[in-house]
Structures are given as structure tokens and as C-alpha cells.
Amino acid sequence: xxxxxxxxxxxxxxxxxxxxxxxxxxxxxxxxxxxxxxxxxxxxxxxxxxxxxxxxxxxxxxxxxxxxxxxxxxxxxxxxxxxxxxxxxxxxxxxxxxxxxxxxxxxxxxxxxxxxxxxxxxxxxxxxxxxxxxxxxxxxxxxxxxxxxxxxxxxxxxxxxxxxxxxxxxxxxxxxxxxxxxxxxxxxxxxxxxxxxxxxxxxxxxxxxxxxxxxxxxxxxxxxxxxxxxxxxxxxxxxxxxxxxxxxxxxxxxxxxxxxxxxxxxxxxxxxxxxxxxxxxxxxxxxxxxxxxxxxxxxxxxxxxxxxxxxxxxxxxxxxxxxxxxxxxxxxxxxxxxxxxxxxxxxxxxxxxxxxxxxxxxxxxxxxxxxxxxxxxxxxxxxxxxxxxxxxxxxxxxxxxxxxxxxxxxxxxxxxxxxxxxxxxxxxxxxxxxxxxxxxxxxxxxxxxxxxxxxxxxxxxxx
Length: 463
Prior knowledge:
463 residues, Immunoglobulin-like, 2 domains, 5-stranded antiparallel sheet, 15 helices
């Protein structure tokens, strides 16, 4: 069933889709606009500034992939600590679920990287091309010397920022001062150059051109957010009972007597929206809860001497006169899980061992009988020193009667962050154990501090 005929295109073919128009969000001022600006400055300050911080003669945050060391201030993580990364991702997911259940998509509106960089690119665009009405007029105007100059300036600013963003991103994996020196002298490696350009291009494309299309079509969060919403979730709401029927009027008109609501149909809320929706039509999945429409509407309400809050953060229950509940089953479950997992995460990092060992049996020979009538099994000990200074470790064996352990050196000396494979021979006297497999505990002990120790378990085979 069709609702109307669409005129054919100039080439004679009928188009089955409508090309999207570029959205030029109107600049607004207000409480939430100031919060968004503060969030942009804080988040970008952390991103751009963190690689330049120093900690104990090294970069404070550095993910050194060739050395397989991941430095986060005073902590150093290793590939064996991958569990902490998985744990952190689970915490982030639970945190997002909790925030969404309570306050909707405030993450999208204030802290999402796509939102933050898009807002920064819009500021640069406004600097080069002027406010909203001038940018729209510039889009529609023919190419002139002024248009070329303004567009060129905009893209120069975008490219510089995008390349600096790519440089900063790579600076988390290559020491940033070293990377800066390499780029300045054109001696950077191919992979470093590739990732600077790739991440810069992605920033330029996403924040400069795709913008809201990423939020609407590419981000999966917009699609499954409804599963985390309920009637007590805080959302951007238009008070239809108060605002309708909408219509234009003089400022001194008694609009109630004229049968009008508080909405003057100025469409500033639509013009301010970075995704181009009309919030008066109800909550839509494109809404990122940035509250730009609230600031725009409150400004109009102030000019009309009407109460603020025609568009506001609220809940479905509150809009219908039912008290909203922050504490409800899903928020309690999310908060409880988040608290427990976060506490365990911090405790696990604080108490994680500073030395690790993997015990690997020699598969070529299950056992052998030595000349002094002992049964011997051979193992390979992979010992990792996770500390920032060299350490010396002794090897002990426990769990079997009269067990002995021997290695081809007096002790295991490891440098900072060094991983070494050490052959070890575990033996017991013949006849003290039944035939079969038995558990043996191999203990690695710091010779300077007996409290620093770790154990590995293996099977000891007896003929």
C-alpha cells in the first residue's frame, strides 16, 4: 500500500531511499550544555595528557606489546594477567547496564568517544564556517573563493586534530616521547606510521562525516538499550499534557484561555538535537540523552515566562503521576554485582603474586631410575619475575616423602620482568610410593623475602 507517488529522479529511475541531510545542531547554552563541555574537556584531557605522565622513570601508562608488559602507573601486568582484562570488561559492561537502567543513555550523551570527538569537530567546524545558519547557507551556496577557503580551513583543523589523535593513540603502545622523535625525524617504523594514519583517518571520518550515523546505524547499543529500560528509567521526556496543543503566539497572550499548551512550536529542540529527532514525538532509539533539547526548551520557556521543564529528564511513571523508584530489583541486582565484583577486582590486584610459575612435565620420559636408586621425573619450570627489579629464587618440592629437587644452577636469577625456562628434576627413593601418579607441589621462593612465593602442582609418575 502506498501513501503517495514519489517523483522520478532526473535520470528516469525511481529512488527507493532518501539521501540523509547533514545535521547542523544549533548551539545552545544551559546547565546540561556546560556539563557536556566539562565532560569533553575532562575526557579529552585524560586521553591526550595521560601518555605524557611519568612514573618511576617510565611512561605512566604504556602497553608495551613487544616486551609483553602493560604498565598502569605503579602496576605492571603480563600476558598471564589476562584474567584481569576480562574481569575489567565485565565490570564495564555491568556498570553500563546499571547506569542505563537508572539514567538511560547518559553515557552516549556525555562520555561516549563518538559523542566527545564529534562535539570537538563541531566546535572546529563552527570556528571555520560560523554558526548554524551560516553553515547551512554555505552548504547550499555554489562553490566560491570564500566557500573553498572556509572548507579548506575546516579540513585542515580536522586533519591536524585527527593526526594528533592517532599519534596519541599509538603513544599508548610506543613511548610517546620516542614516537614523537621518530615522527619528527621521519624514522618511525611502518606499523607505527600505519596506525597513526589509520586511527587519524578513522577519527576524521567518524567525527567529521559519519557523526550521528554511527549512533543510529552502527552502534549496537542503540538497538538493545530497550532491554535495559523500564518505566522507572530516566529518559528525555516531553510533557505532552502540558505542551499540547502546540502553536505560535504572542508573548503576552493568555495561551491557556486561547486553548494552547506551553509548546510554542519553535522547533528549537529539533534544531539543537545532534541526531535530528523531534523529541515531542516520544522517546526514539536515536536519542542519546544529551539534553540539548532541554537547554533549548528551557531558554524558550524563560523568554515566554513559562515554567521550565516542558522537556526534561523524567521517567514514564513520573510523567503519568506515579512516583519513580530508583531502588528496584534490576538496579539492586546490578549494584550488588558491581560492588562485589569491583571489590574482588581491587583485592585480587592488591594481592596478586609478584612471581608466577608454570610446571610442564617432560613427555619424552615418564620417569627414570637413578644410580642412587631414586625415581626421578623431569619438568620444565617457566618462572616469571613480575617485579620491577632483579630477584633470586630458590626451588623447593613438597607433598611427597623424602622428595628432592635439583636444577642446573644454585638459584634462579631473573631480571625485572624476565621469563625463564628452567629444567628441574624431582626425585624420591624407590619403594616409598605406590605405582601410578602422585601430586607434587613445586614451590618458588624469593631468597630475600620468604613471604614472596608461589606454588605449581604436577603429577609425579612411579613405575
